[in-house]
Write a structure and sequence with these properties.
7 helices; mainly alpha; 2 domains; 2 strands; about 5% strand
Length: about 190
C-alpha cells in the first residue's frame, strides 16, 4: 500500500483521534485505578470519562479552529470551567472537616491531561500521568506513614460519619430509623 493511500485511510478513519482516545483512556484509567483502590469518590470510570471527554473536546476544538481560523483555546477554557464545577461537587465539609480536596484536584489534573492528549502532546501527557501517579502514591505513602491525621480514618471520611455496620449509610441514619420504629404506628393498639 503506497504511503499516500495509507495517509488517506488514516485521515478518513480518523485513526489519529482513535489513538488519542486510547491514550486518554489509559492515562485516565491509570490515575482512576489508584483512586478506586483507595476507595475515593472519583474512581476508575470517572477519571477515564473526564480524560476521554477532555481529549475529544480538545481535538474537536482544534479541528474547528483549523477549518475556520478560530481560537482552539475557547472550548478548552470551557472544559476547565466545567471541570471546576465537577470538582467542587466532590468537596465535602462535615463536622469541621473538609474532605475531597485531593479528589477535586485529581479531577482537574486529569482533565488537563485529556486536553494535552487531545492537542496531540502525547509525550507531555505521559509525563504528567506519571507525575500525578507519583504524587498520589508517593506522597500518599509519606502522609500515611509520617503524618498522623486523627480526624481521618485513612479513607478521607471523618470518623463516626459513616458506620460500617449501617451498610454504607450514615451512622446517625440507623439510629433515627430505630427510634422511628420504636414508636407505634397510627392506629396501633400497643
Amino acid at each position: 500500500m503506497p504511503a499516500a493511500e495509507l495517509q488517506e485511510w488514516v485521515e478518513v478513519l480518523r485513526l489519529d483521534l482513535g489513538a488519542k482516545l486510547l491514550i486518554a483512556i489509559l492515562a485516565g484509567g491509570a490515575i482512576g485505578l489508584e483512586r478506586e483502590l483507595r476507595r475515593k469518590p472519583a474512581g476508575l470510570r470517572t477519571n477515564i470519562l473526564i480524560c476521554l471527554g477532555s481529549a475529544l473536546l480538545m481535538d474537536l476544538s482544534m479541528r474547528i479552529a483549523g477549518n475556520h481560523a478560530g481560537d482552539p483555546g475557547r472550548i478548552a477554557a470551557q472544559v476547565v470551567t466545567g471541570i471546576g464545577f465537577l470538582g467542587a461537587g466532590t468537596i465535602l465539609h462535615t463536622r469541621g472537616t473538609i474532605t475531597g480536596l485531593t479528589s477535586a484536584a485529581t479531577i482537574w489534573v486529569v482533565a488537563a491531561i485529556g486536553l494535552t492528549v487531545g492537542a496531540g502532546y502525547l509525550f507531555e501527557a505521559l509525563g504528567a500521568t506519571i507525575t500525578v501517579m507519583a504524587v498520589l502514591e508517593g506522597l500518599g505513602w509519606i502522609e500515611r506513614r509520617y503524618l498522623d491525621h486523627p480526624s481521618d480514618g485513612g479513607d478521607g471520611i471523618p470518623p463516626n460519619e459513616w458506620d460500617a455496620r449501617s451498610g454504607g449509610r450514615r451512622g446517625g441514619d440507623e439510629t433515627q430509623r430505630r427510634r422511628a420504629s420504636d414508636r407505634p404506628l397510627q392506629g396501633d393498639d400497643a
